[in-house]
Amino acid sequence: MHPRRGRLLAGLTGATLLSGVGMATGFSMSASAQATYEIEPRAPEYLYARTCGYCHGHNIAPIIRGRALPPAVTAAIVRSGMGAMPAFKPTEITDAELQALAEWLAQSEADPEEHGG
Amino acid sequence: MSNGFSRREVMAIGGAVASTAAMTPLARARMMPQDMDRDVFAGVVRELRAIVGDEWVFADEASTISYRKSGIPDLRGEHVPSGAVAPANVEQVQAILALANRYRLPLWPISTGKNMGYGMATPASSGQMILDLKRMNRILDFDAELGTILVEPGVTYQQIHDYIEDNDLPYWVDVPTVGPIVSMMGNTLERGVGYTPYGDHFFMQCGMEVVLADGTILKTGMGSIENGNTWQAFKWGYGPYLDGIFTQSNFGIVTKLGMWLMPRPPAYKPFMVRSPNVEDVAAITDTIRPFRMNNLIPNGVLIMGALYQMSMFNRRADLWDGEGVIPLDVIQRHARANDIGMWNTFYALYGTDEIIAAIEPILTTAFEATGADVLTEAEMGGNPYFEHNKTLMRGGMTLEEKGLVRWWGRSGGAVAFAPVAPAKGGETIGQTQLATEIMNKWGFDYAPAYAVGGRELHHIIFLMFDKGDDEHSRKAEQCMEEMITRFGERGWAAYRSSVSTMDLVADQYGAANREVNARIKQALDPNHIIAPGKQGIA
Lengths: 117, 538
Prior knowledge:
- The complex is a heterodimer of chains A (117) and B (538).
- With 117 residues, chain A is mostly helical.
- Chain A has helices at residues 3-10, 44-50, 71-80, 95-107.
- Chain A folds into two domains: 1-40, no CATH class; 41-117, Cytochrome c-like domain (Cytochrome Bc1 Complex, Chain D, domain 2, Orthogonal Bundle), CATH 1.10.760.
- In chain A, helix 2 packs across helix 4 (95-107) and helix 3 (71-80) packs across helix 4.
- Chain A is globular.
- Chain B is an alpha+beta fold and 538 residues long.
- Chain B folds into four domains: 26-132, Uridine Diphospho-n-acetylenolpyruvylglucosamine Reductase, domain 2; 139-263, Uridine Diphospho-n-acetylenolpyruvylglucosamine Reductase, domain 3, CATH 3.30.465.10; 267-497, FAD-linked oxidases, C-terminal domain (Vanillyl-alcohol Oxidase, Chain A, domain 3, 3-Layer(aba) Sandwich); 503-536.
- Chain B contains 17 helices and 19 strands.
- In chain B, strand 8 (205-211) and strand 9 form a beta hairpin.
- The longest helix of chain B is centred in the last third of the chain and has 20 residues, at 470-489.
- At the A-B interface, helix 1 and helix 3 of A face helix 1, helix 3, strand 5 and helix 5 of B.
């Protein structure tokens, strides 16, 4: 099961904690609630938002969207962690996910909201 | 080039891509486990593949590239792994341990391998095989009444954050400064800290599952009670409390970890105390301490040095292109231009508007008496330095602190030194003076932060250097050694260290400590297959 689907199964309702937030109903996830992501590859946009985009386009690292970066270069940099960038292992992003991410990045439009570092 | 990379870099990267296919497995002898013949290692690799599948064993120059990356100095290749193996479950971990015992294969466990400033995924000595637990990435249990979570090693703070948001669970997760890509288990086992009221991560840990070197599965605390349901509710169990010996440790491999989560408060208000002078850190520390002890300030407070902050969003050349270390007046000028002081202290209040309104004036009066400005969202909203800590103090996701790694330029390089001390003003002045003297002598900028717990403080010093320059790396290594040694002479020792200085720091904790650790190690892992050298334990 993909984590995102697992989350939907939680089905919690919010109520109040202190004065106004949440006293949840009694509930405990089952041990099978989340499986590894190997079942279902994560989309490039999802990966970009949850990893790359924290630095690239966010003051810390160069903008990489809208620059037609060759996919092979992107893939090599992700695996090796060129310079100050951390390396990302096949257990963090599979070869197939990385290939899709690198191709998406090569085709992506620049985001005017982003700023380089 | 228009893509932001130089032609030379693209050529080099392209060459690396092309060459990976032609690489011969086991190409580099120095990566081999000590005392293991190449043909034996090749046989071990074949057996590992039979356990986890071909695609989850990495044993050549190209496929291990991600595991070799670190930002610390390693001029002599002393932290180069022989390869990596990534099991999918506890049974595979047990099978790998049996194999490792049979062949005396040293294994270096990692969760996500993002131990920034301390060596990332790299081992204490070359030749160890990385035991990459990232594939074990399930949130196994989330008790929404108790606010407890049970996670596997590969679960990142981002994953937990998303889980909470997607299910509208009334909790916050406390994060270290690089939360999105870091494992909750990894950070907690290294006894890392965060910045909400749940900032002392190991204090908030409750129950763990450990696979011992002989394959035994130990569940600590209440975890082994038949039909039990209290594993994540009560920490101490019965008899000796064992969880501690598996943190910063090589006595076993932790495969499940329980944690407590902070109930999401109805109201949250972050504050920044702006202090203009370097020596103000003493008065600030003495002001924080009683409020941390009586819990009027409930969260992990950060006293951030201006240069530490500015190193996140700037490169060194943006501030200074002159000779030597950056002069104080230059730092002060840039700090003022960014609306920050030489020290900027971040705390927050949580609860209801009424609770916050009652406490706020007490704290504001106390901090203003030190000569500082006490600022809030009203004055600082949108300022990137304020926004950074505002995010951290509510457990938000940010990687901005990665920026300091490229302070000296594109090659990057940063190694952390984190001595602890009592939370007293005189200690901060003494540590700041000593660190400044040593770092400036070696040509490095002193970029500090103090994280104040209840009665202690962690002095976080990132020694930023240019890893692309061997001479600079050598100086960084020597500077770090001098800092550890001379701080030690004053009675100040690190709470954690990079893989390159573990023996040095372990020595400062004394022969008896080392001997007891060695005896426990011998009893639990007589073949020394789990992370030899970790925290100086062979």
